[in-house]
Amino acid sequence: MTPTRGGTMLIDCEKCELRNVGCADCVVSFMLGDPVEAVEISDGERRALDVLAEGGMLPPLRLTISDGRAS
């Protein structure tokens, strides 16, 4: 995938804190099932997914990754 002016976003379900909890209502599961590998999307694709989610046409991206610091 060619990066856009703003770059790309790597979606790695293995690193998501909501894995196996929020998957059923996540756009990645909706569109790709259970991806085996990380998925890379451009900023334009991300904006398009956000617009579709805001319009109720897709579930939102539920990706949540810890910054590694203890709270």
E-strand count? 2
> Helical residue percent?
25-40%
- Helix/strand/pairing category: alpha+beta
Low-confidence stretches: none
Order of helices and strands: EHEH
Characterize the overall form.
globular
Termini, distance in Å? 36 Å
Largest sheet: 2 strands, antiparallel
Mean pLDDT equals: 78
Radius of gyration, in Å, reads 13 Å
| Count of helical regions | 2
Strand content: 5-15%
Strand order of the largest sheet: 1-2
Describe the protein.
The chain has 71 residues and is of the alpha+beta class. It contains 2 helices and 2 strands, in the order βαβα. It has a two-stranded antiparallel sheet with strand order 1-2. It has helices spanning 27-32, 43-54; strands at 8-11, 39-42. The model has no long low-confidence stretch (mean pLDDT 78). The protein has a domain at 8-54. The longest helix has 12 residues, at 43-54.
